[in-house]
Amino acid sequence: MDLRRLSSFLAVVEEGHFGRAATRLFLSPAAVTGHIQQLEREFGTPLLERSPVTPTPAGRRLVSHARTLLAAANAAMDDVADVTQGAAPRRPLRVGVMGHGSAEVTPAAVSAFRRARPEVPLSLVQLTFTEHCSALREDRVDVAFVRPGFQSEGITVDVLTTEQRIVVVSAASSLADAAQEGVRRADIIDLPYLRLPSHTPRPFTDYLYFDEGERRSPDCALTPHDCLTSVAAGRGAGSALKSFARYYPWPGTVYIPVLDAPWAHTVLATREQDPDPEVRIFRALTVALARELGPAAAR
Length: 299
Known about the structure:
This protein has 299 residues and is α+β, with helices and mostly antiparallel strands. It is built from eleven helices and ten strands. The chain is elongated. Residues 1-56 form the HTH lysR-type domain.
């Protein structure tokens, strides 16, 4: 598969116009049109609707693959250049994961990267609820699966999943019987949510407390284990995403859907314009996989 044709295809999709894509690529419109026609012959199906210019179902499927292939090709060029320039052996790619990360997307992305780059060591770093950006800014990780979505200068965020919210209460709680039908925010306003350290970023405190401010539990939680241990003991309540229940079944706890709470994102965070080719490959693979697997987290 010719990478130049894929580059032309992506440019047309992103610009929504053959002429603008040609200008961006410093090619003639005829050359870009020829690349698209050659790709369509290669795949045996139309990839773009012409008026207006939008990808067909087959074209939409190709977009994520094209981005991954181009990112991998660019990274390969950088990797070979490092060798020819006598670069020192690189350190492992450090993947930060808060809790269970982005549900099924996280293990799939790690596995895909290991298959694509078996010669690159990869290490997993468990992040606490306070480490949305700090692990990246302090160069302790290279990429981070965190929640909820946020904006921060110098950090690039890719949304991977969007999920329903749940609360986690003790099995002895008066709300435990609502596990099947769910509750509304008015029902959970007065729950004694577990405390977070004072340096926890505001996006996470707003997420945990449903934007309702401080809570009364004497216990502090930094990890899912902390949270579930306290909840099972009847010392507080927690909140999470729906997929949390699949990854952390815990005796003495009950997970209850919150029917009217806004759904929340999990994201992959990276340093803006990170030059590391392995980061670019991991990011491209993860975003492509999220398009395929992300909806599974909403089940």
